[in-house]
Each structure stands twice: as structure tokens, then as C-alpha cells.
Amino acid sequence: MQLPQAIQAYFEADRKNNCEALLACFAQTAAVHDEGRSYSGHYAIGNWWEWSKARYRHVADPSKPSLTSMGRR
């Protein structure tokens, strides 16, 4: 799957657990909305990402869609 460079960089940083590289994919004023909450700016997004990785131990891989990501369970 061919992704835009910025999206590809995000998934690569996530796979390598590299918070600094992941944050470089976001503008300084970016916001993430997740589970009914918003996280604005690099500091908040970095904290959200590290907390989420520790809690859920998720793996984000856009080349392997799952049934849940396609609206099915």
C-alpha cells in the first residue's frame, strides 16, 4: 500500500516506538481526538500516545486492515 510520506512516517515511528519521530509528523498546534477527549500540541499528544501504547499495547499497521477497522466485529 502506497501512503503519503507523512502518514508513512507516522506508522514507522509508531512501529519503532519513537515518540520524537511520531511527534515530528504533527504540526506544533495539532490536536488528536480519541475516546471523547482532545489532546492539543506536541506535549499533550506525546503523553497521550505514550499512555495509550503502555495501556493498550496496540500495533498500528495500515497494510493489514481488520474486520473491526472496516466496521465489522
DSSP, total strands: 2
Instruction: Categorize the overall geometry.
Output: globular
Number of helices: 3
What's the arrangement of strands in the largest beta sheet?
1-2
The biggest sheet, with number of strands, parallel, antiparallel or mixed sense and barrel status, is: 2 strands, antiparallel
Class from helix and strand fractions: alpha+beta
Order of helical and strand elements: HHEEH
Oligomeric state of the chains present here: single chain
Uncertain parts: none
Q: Mean pLDDT, rounded to whole units? A: 88
Helix fraction, binned, reads: 40-55%
Describe the structure.
The protein is an alpha+beta fold and 73 residues long. Helix content is 44%, strand content 11%. It is built from three helices and two strands, in the order ααββα. It has helices at residues 5-15, 19-23, 41-56; strands spanning 31-34, 37-40. The chain has a two-stranded antiparallel sheet with strand order 1-2. Strand 1 and strand 2 form a beta hairpin. It starts with a helix and ends in a 17-residue tail after the last helix. The relative contact order is 0.15. The model has no long low-confidence stretch (mean pLDDT 88).
Give me a quick take on this structure:
The chain is α+β, with helices and mostly antiparallel strands and 73 residues long.
Provide key terms for this protein:
alpha+beta, two-stranded antiparallel ribbon, 3 helices
Layout of SSEs?
Elements (H helix, E strand, L loop, with lengths): L4 H11 L3 H5 L7 E4 L2 E4 H16 L17
Antiparallel strand pairs: 1-2
